């Protein structure tokens, strides 16, 4: 799988109980590149399954990076800046306690993945003769 394009956006809202909620949306366009093997990735059922596996892997990687950043107490994704930009009054309330707030923040991730076709597909001769 080759990533051709990726986009991302983050939205913030304060929950009904004062919790910090971040909604992250990641969009990825991938190409399947060259393939050799016996599974026909040009078939929709196979390509859809591969795209779903790719979506799951991207989600796992983002959540893993989030957990590592929390472990290191480093807001590398800019959640605090997002609050300060879109909810400045809220930021003034929590900025002095941001390290703790960051640990408790609710992050909802949506990954949308789109396939942009396949590259060269080479099937073994015995697969063609079956």
N-to-C CA distance? 27 Å
The percentage helix is 40-55%
- The CATH class, by name, is Alpha Beta
Anisotropy-based shape: elongated
CATH topology annotation: GMP Synthetase, Chain A, domain 3
- The count of strands amounts to 5
Count of DSSP-assigned helices: 5
Provide the succession of SSEs.
EEEHHHHEEH
Based on the structure given, which CATH architecture is correct?
2-Layer Sandwich
Number of structurally distinct domains: 1
What percentage of the residues does DSSP assign to strands (E)?
Answer: 25-35%
- Derived structural class: alpha/beta
- Gyration radius from CA atoms, angstroms: 20 Å
- Provide the low-confidence segments as ranges: none
Average residue pLDDT: 86
Read across the widest sheet, the strand sequence of neighbours is 1-2-4
The largest sheet is: 3 strands, mixed
CATH 4th-level superfamily: Nutrient germinant receptor protein C, domain 3
Domain Spore germination GerAC-like C-terminal: 17-114
InterPro entries: Spore_GerAC-like, Spore_GerAC-like_C, Spore_GerAC_C_sf
GO biological process, one term: spore germination
Protein name: Spore germination GerAC-like C-terminal domain-containing protein
